[in-house]
Amino acid sequence: MYHYRSGQVEPGPPERSGRAGAPASSWETSDAAFRVNPYIRWQYDHPERLLPHPTREALDALRARVPARGLCLELGSGSGNFLVQLARQHPDWHVLGFELRYKRLVKSALKFERAGLGNAWLVRDLAERFTDYVAPESVDAIHVNFPDPWPRASQWKKRLVGATLLADARAALRVGGRFHLRTDFSGYFLHVLGTWRGLSGLKMCFFSNDLEHNRPPGPILLSEFEQLFRSQRKPVFSLILEKTA
């Protein structure tokens, strides 16, 4: 299985083709899998922060313990640096991260616990399935940070952000809620811009060809990839779309 921005194949079960919360595959629960990748078993050490086999009901039960005034998602949350900052910035919001890689999920859960964050959770599922876990018009912000660019034309259909995801984001966001994208890949950025122009109900409220020189108001929260690209002096492209109706 090829994973988000890694360039490597991580041992893991086959892609899940059914509903969210489907039972673990026989490979994932085998002794061989545990020896190859110990993070498969370590994911179960954080039941209050990480849902290895998530369901909407299980997530709702965790969220019900913590009152909140807002809801924010990161699709493809990596090792959790951005999510930790986001949860600290919005202590009265629920913060959800969607990620597949075992190691990144465990590292994120540990960061939540060390930071004493009680308002953030991790869902091990495909980012595209986020609508399985949230109600329509319930989300205040959706962040996608440096998704796999899939640069060849034959790969474009694999890109996370396209017409389907933007339409799902529009349905999930409250009026006034925002969709945030950052990428280092100009071709992907242009692809999303072209897709957005064909959709109604989302207006552009911020655009930047280089976040180093044109930033949105407020503090900038950095993901692991953004820290890397800034150190390499690579431009970071960014847009923010706001739901209007």
Strand content: 15-25%
Cα Rg: 17 Å
What is the CATH class designation? Alpha Beta
User: Ends: how far apart?
Assistant: 38 Å
Q: Write out the strand line-up for the largest beta sheet, numbering strands in chain order.
A: 1-4-3-2-5-6-8-7
* Number of separate domains: 1
- The CATH architecture term is 3-Layer(aba) Sandwich
Question: Which oligomeric state applies?
Answer: single chain
Compute the number of strand runs.
Answer: 8
Q: What string, H for helix and E for strand, traces the elements in order?
A: HHEHEHEHEEHEHEHE
What is the count of DSSP helices, taking H or I runs of 4+ residues?
8
Low-confidence blocks of residues:
6-23
Mean pLDDT: 86
C-alpha geometry: globular
Sum this structure up briefly.
With 245 residues, the chain is of the alpha/beta class.
How does this model look, in words?
This protein is of the alpha/beta class and 245 residues long. It has a single domain, classed as Rossmann fold. The protein is 29% helix and 21% strand. It is built from eight helices and eight strands; from the N terminus they run ααβαβαβαββαβαβαβ. Strands 1-4-3-2-5-6-8-7 form an eight-stranded mixed sheet, with helices on both faces. Strand 5, helix 6 and strand 6 form a beta-alpha-beta unit. The radius of gyration is 17 Å and the shape is globular.
